[in-house]
Each structure stands twice: as C-alpha cells, then as structure tokens.
C-alpha cells in the first residue's frame, strides 16, 4: 500500500480551514446558516442540516466524518463562566498536594521498603481534581446526598496527600503506603474499600471496571429515584479515567446504556495525557478525536478541553485557520515529543511546519512557548467551565476529554517521557528543582539533611490564608472520598414468606431454578422487605421462568413502555415501566455484574440497604465476569448471585460453552463469596434466609460484607417437602445427613453429593442395597467450599496455638461415621475433592472434568462417570480395597451396568435444553 493510500486515523481527516479555495463563498454559506439559527431557531436549523446531509448522500457526495470536531476546546473562551474561587490560593494548594503526593511515593522507595508507587498520573490530573474538590465534589453529609467519585486508581497518592493536608491521614499512615501488613497503619496502593473501609468507596484500578461500574452507579441512582425509594436528584457520579484505560473493551462497551437511560447525572473525565504505561496511546493518531467520535456516536455529550488560555490569542490571530489545521493534523506521538523537549524545539517542529503559524509566535520567547502555551487539562478556568457545563447539561451523560501531560511539573526527567510511569524516585537535584517549581518553602539544608528519602512533607500553618481557604471549601462540600461504616438495618421478611420453600412441589416436577423463583415471588410481595429486592437479569428471564415477574414487578425502563407489546394479551406479557423493579440488562453480563455491585453497596453509598439478586447462566458468571465480582467483593457488595442452568450436564443439549463444571472453583477464589450448591427448594429457603440475616441482620457476629453464590439447575424433579427434624445447622455449615443407612448387617458406605447430584446418590443407595447388600447413607453437601473454609480456619488457628487445638466442624460431624466415602457432583473433580483432608477413612471422588459437549443428561453423566451406577461401582471398589467385599464384585458391577456404554445411563431425565 502506498503512502497516499494509507487510511488516515480518526480526527486527522477533518476539512482544512487554511486551504479553502474560495473562503468568501464559504463565509457566505456560514453567514446564511447563522441567520437561519437566529431567525428560525436551533431545531429548524438542525432539520435543514439533516436534510442537506441526506440530499448530499443521495448525490453520492463524499461527506467528511461528522463525529469529530476541530482539535480545539469545545467551550470558547468568551463563553467560560466566571471562576468562583481564588485562583492564587488554589494553585498553592495544588502545588502543595503535588509535592506531598510525590514525596509519598519517593519516601516509599527508601532502603528496606522499596515498594514503589506512581508519580506521574496524579501530576497530570491534579488540576482537574482540585477544581472538583474545591467546587463540585459533594460529600456524603451534603444535603443532596453526596456524589459518587470514581478516582483514577494510579493517582491515589494525590488523594492521600489531600487527605493528609485535611488532617484525615497522618504522616505515619503515609509512610505506610503500600505496607498494609508490615506497617501498623499501612495503606493500600490503590482505591480499595475493603482495605480502607472508612475512606475509599469504589475500587477502580483494574482497568475497565471503573467505567462500567460508574455507569451502573448513576443508573442505580436514577432507579432509586424513579421507584420512589430515595431522592437522588442532586447526586452526581464522576468517573476519572485514563486515555490508555479506554483501550479496554469494557471501558467503552457499555456507553450505549448511559445514553439510552439519559444519565445526565454521570460525567466521565478522561485524562488524556497521550501515554499508556510504556508508550503513546496513539502515536500515529489522535486519541481525543477517536474518543470524541465513539462517545458522540454512542449518544454522549462531548466536551473537549485541549488548550490552555495561552493559546486563545494565537487562535484568535490565526483567522485563516492555519493553526487549527496544524492542530488537526499533528499526531499524538509528536505532541508527546514536543513536551519532552523545549520551547525552541516546539517553535521549529510544530509552528515551523507552516510559515503562517511560525509567524504567530515570532514575538514569543522559547520560555513563553514552553510555559504559556499549556494544555487545557492544566488550566483551572477551562476545567471549571467544562465541569460546570457537564453539570448543567440535561438528557445525556457527558464525557470531558482533557489534554494533559503525564508527569506535569515533576521536572524534565519525568514530564512526557515514555518511562515516566515506572519512575518512582528523585535524585537530590530533582528534589531541589521540584521544590523551586512548586514554590515549596524548604531550604537546601532541609532537603540535604539525612537520606534523600527523608525528603519532608509540607503542611502550611493552620491559621495561614491558604489553609483557611482549603478548609472552608471542604467544610462547604463535605469529605471526599469517604465511606459510611454505620448502616441502617434491613427489615427482615415475615415468617410466612418461607413456607413456599418448605412445602415442596407435591407431584409436580420443577427444577431448583423454579423453586427459587417461586420463593422470590413471595419475597417480592413481602410488606417488610419486598420493595428492597432488585432482580437483575441478562436476556434470559424466560429461560429461568422469571417471566412470571414481568406483569407485577415490571422491568425498569426510565422511558417506560412506549410501544404496543406483541404479547400484550398473554398472562406473562413483557411489561416495562419507569417504576419497574427488575433490572433487565439485555445480553450483557458485565453491566449486570456492575448493577449488582451498585445495588449491593447501596447500604453504604445511600444508607439504604437493597438486596440484589442477579441470576445468569452459571457458565457465564465467574468465568466471564470474575474481575467484576472481585471488585464487587472489594467494594463489599452484598446480595445473591444465582448461577442458573448450573452444572456440567443439566444443560447438556447446549454444549461446550454452556456446560459449567467449575464455577464453584472460580467463585471459591473470591474471598467475598459464600458458595452453596443446594439440591432442593427447602435448602434454598434456609440458605436465603440465613444469607439475609448474615449480610443485613442486626447483632450478627459473622463477617457481613459478603455476597452469596447459589447454583441452581434446570432439571425438573419432584421437590420434596422439608424433612422433619431437619439438621438446619448442618445444612448451613455445608453438609447434613439426608438418609441414614438401613438397619441390618452388611458393609456400610457414605455417599456424598450436592445439587442435582443428590438424587443420583439416593438412587445409588437403593442399588447398593438391592444388588449388593451394601448399606449406604446419603449426605447432602450444600457447600463443599464452606466446609473447606471452616476447616482451614481451624488449621490456621492450630498452627499458631498448639496449646488450644480446634477440630474442624466436618471432622467432628463425621467422627465415628463408618466409611468408605464416595463423592460425586455435577462439577469437576476438584469441587468435592476440596474436603478430602478432613474426611476420615478412604475417600473416592468422581468428577465431571474436561470439555463440555452436547448430549442427553443420562448419556453425559454416564460418559463422565459421575452418575448413580458410577457411584455404586466406586463404592464397591473402595469396599474391596478395605477387604470388606469380594474384589470380583467390582468387575461384575461394571459389566452388569454396562458402565462403558453411555447409552445405558439412567441418572436424570432426558433432554438438557435451556
């Protein structure tokens, strides 16, 4: 491909201003359009333009990209509002915070610690934060309810520095930066609410999670308002992001939701310093123009803050458009290079590309070009104008694209360098230069005293003008960031709600998914807590039998339902409403997980406990959205996550990418997840009831900041009524005896299973008795993982307390129980193997390992050797090893049951459809 055939990047293909062959004619057209706007109004002018564009397309004219505008500020200088603060004092505050933020990271590099940190991200975004802190960010105690601020993760030292200046953090805490265990008051590197529960509110440093979570936080605020649960009309969500972060698919993947829901309570601020961690974001292109096109195309209001006030006179003087053309055509890689050089280099290599632009700066010194021609993200007035415009804009979310310099004002060794993200410390000369740049009143002697890593933090005198101003601004707006640690309790459901789970399904066969949905319907009707439930569903409600909720709970839509539903005459018609209770997210697990997080942390963000219940295909849960659930755990979300159509074989007809044999293993790696695999509806009832008490109840001694993951299945069975004298304690701890061994003589075996596998174990019990004279007990293991967690806690205690040894609960429960033990489930071998260490005697595990496939349920279970007959053979094998039966019986059983013939399988109903 020749150079002239190479496609030009987005934003570099704008029409030229300076090369217009007939500028007078162009001016006439523009004047005519201005007259149209003045005389007929904006709406009529828009109609005319749209008709012209459509007509041009009919004429096969090539139209330029209409989603990008010139590489200049969206808000002209003459439209900027008056700045409401003291610019001199705010600059001083900003400089102090820059110094202290840099010193937090620098001091953390001292010998014996050397934990690192990031200097340059905050340096590039400091001006934006200061404008926000001084004039926009409202704390939780604000009368309007407070804002939600998602801080750019790598800029955390700057937030710590500001909190230190407020007296919210001590120097000892700052010196414990990134030393959470080795320091008695250590702090996390990034925003981690679980690590600093009264400070950080939102985890953001895992790239891409912050944008989606911010969208759903803003959406949830509107949801609460529209449902009449809380007035959130004065609350605003701010998400500070990096331009490199915007390369994550998640960062841009949910933009349509914010536009569709008209989230004018949401503002993204993208810190466009043009650099990733290792180099330019778009060396050959223009990331701001690219983002403008995508956000505008997704329906967002876009505000660009490209140039500081020093450029305004040059743009005014360049009436031929040559300067704008130059700005439009310069790629980001060049802009990055300019800021790593000097004013003379910029004069020659930027302005010098066109004699008309070179003439614009002929009266400016190299120092003026370097210092006065700043980028818009470092101009307080222009940032304020953008923030105010975003707050005033109605009907759309807003994105502010701010042009900045990474490492700004940190010195020539840092600013704009590719390696600046990895630079974590200063030389003595660097410190002195930074002190001079930021006007910090330390002498050379103070900086030279002790090690270079002893560079001091700076706090002005309490009664100084700058500190009085600093404190007055936050006194007016409230503390940010801040998280509530005291919460309003949740009213618990009435006793009668739980009866539907206890009575079973009679003669009707229903899956545990339907048993859960029946219980949920009654919970939604509960007068105490019904309105607090937030059902969250991707586009799978009918698969899970949840369409029964549509007519009553209704689907949340801020626009209501403005069309005639095709199924309007049906009992279970699709029904949308502004007051709808169901968050129906479409085929979008990531946004659904973010909605779960927003609802599950409402107890803290709004002091209004809500109960999210997010249901999905279990295969699409922790495998696809595990990082989002990790962030949910970090944010201490509460609620119920339901892995429906669970297991390796109950959805066998769907095949490989729908067959879940491992979600409990993935979920187990999340410390915030409490995992259950119930077999029957009554088990589900007890688990949900106990979960509500644990997460939301009063006088609870267990860790409350958890969420529950329940796996439920799509295979219909007769749901038994709750047994008399049910061992509820064992059910909740993870295992209880469902059927004991029959009286009599003969060898004994224990069969353990969970979820859909419990009926196979009960069938195996019958076969062992009838065919082989073996007496078997059946244990319903409701949670392999909870059993393991408790046992490991006991072992951890025993390691450090040899004089006070604890016995794991499972060991106590199985003490005196006659083995061997055989375990099977619809999950990989690893799931039941989690408890092997604490099972007395021989323990044989069957597992559904390997890739999935399409087939019938009985054939799939026989192929994987997890079915009832496989349990029988495994039990006989273990009994033979222990010398309790004749070893030849094992081969007889294999042949008798055609164990190698998948068509001989009998465990479960045929089918496996969704």
Q: Explain this structure to me?
A:
The chain is of the alpha/beta class and 914 residues long. Helices cover 40% and strands 10% of the residues. The strands form 5 sheets. A 6-stranded parallel sheet has the order 10-7-11-12-14-13, with helices on both faces. Helix 1 (23-40) packs across helix 2 (42-58) and helix 14 crosses helix 16 (366-372). Residues 1-5 and 416-422 have low confidence and may be disordered.
What's the quick description here?
Helices cover 40% and strands 10% of the residues.
**How far apart are the first and last residues' alpha carbons, in Å?**
49 Å
Main sheet specs? 6 strands, parallel
What overall geometry do the principal axes of the alpha carbons give? Answer: globular
Low-confidence stretches: 1-5, 416-422
How helical, in percent, are the residues?
25-40%
Radius of gyration, rounded? 32 Å
Q: Average pLDDT across residues?
A: 93
Give the beta-strand count.
20
Biggest sheet: strand arrangement: 10-7-11-12-14-13
